[in-house]
Amino acid sequence: MRAGLRSTGPSGTSAADSAASSSPPPFQLPGKTLSVLPIGLAVFAGISVIALIVVGLVTYERTNLPLPQAFRQRKLAESGANMGYGGMARVDKLTITFLVDNNIEWFGKLPPGFTHELRQHITDHNPPIDPVTGAPTIDFENYCCGAHGFSALIETQAEGESETHYTLFDAGPESRSIARNVAAMRIPVERVERVVLSHWHSDHSGGILAFLRMHREASKNLENAQACVVDLHPDRPIARGIAPGGKIMARLAPDPTFEEIENEGGVVDKHADGHAVAGNTVWISGEIPRLTEYEKGIIGGVRPSEC
């Protein structure tokens, strides 16, 4: 149909008039008229109330302890800057070697990017060769052991740089597992710049002194050898123990003291807030407040204020 023309029905009325006359009457409930305006106002008022509640909760969280610290940590992490360390650097390479964990795993399927210790020993560590078959021998004397605790080596290389930074995150529960597993994985101990302790619990701090002794021994003949920095929260507990219902069952092994760390050649560096290390390629969160009710910690766990 050309522009400017109007289509008409058989009786001479326009199509628009026919549509208008045939449209149904407004919807009405028996004895009542449905009004849209009051319903819209009620919905708007409900949304406004919810918005005010959310704003109030956010304001409360930002102004009551311990939540301000959580907001500050998130802001610092998002900006990647804190206390003069500068922004975080992009990395071309990141490798994490798990040195101590609660178990060892050879047969399970790992996610992409992970490799088993077994493959590394067979292919990279020059294992003894069986004279009969010519195949590498699985030498359990030189393999890692599991232990109740955690330790991981973080290797990072900043974008466009050739230097690799080595950061040890936790040191396992005691001296034997960290020493055995560092040797098993052939870690270049002398190149570790910093030991970072996630929190004061002996299953994470128990191997620090042993690692510092290994670091000092491995570095003694190097020119321009650097002391290993030990990154710690300043609030070291006097003691930790397990006392369900107030009855003392056991005391956990003591964490190393600041003085003991220094005596082993470590440089104590205390931090409570987030900060960047390893040439700004590794971010340490600092203390994270426990905000969720389901995280109760160790059942019966206690931290005496005095001993």
From TrEMBL:
Signal peptide coordinates: none
Keyword Transmembrane helix attached: yes
Residue ranges of the region described as Disordered: 1-24
Amino acid composition bias (Low complexity), ranges on this chain: 7-22
UniProt domain Metallo-beta-lactamase: residue ranges: 162-213
Any Pfam family the entry gives: Lactamase_B
GO molecular function, one term: transferase activity
Keywords: Membrane, Transmembrane, Transmembrane helix
InterPro entries recorded: Metallo-B-lactamas, Metallo-beta-lactamase_dom, RibonucZ/Hydroxyglut_hydro
Protein's recorded name: Metallo-beta-lactamase domain-containing protein
Gene source species: Hermanssonia centrifuga
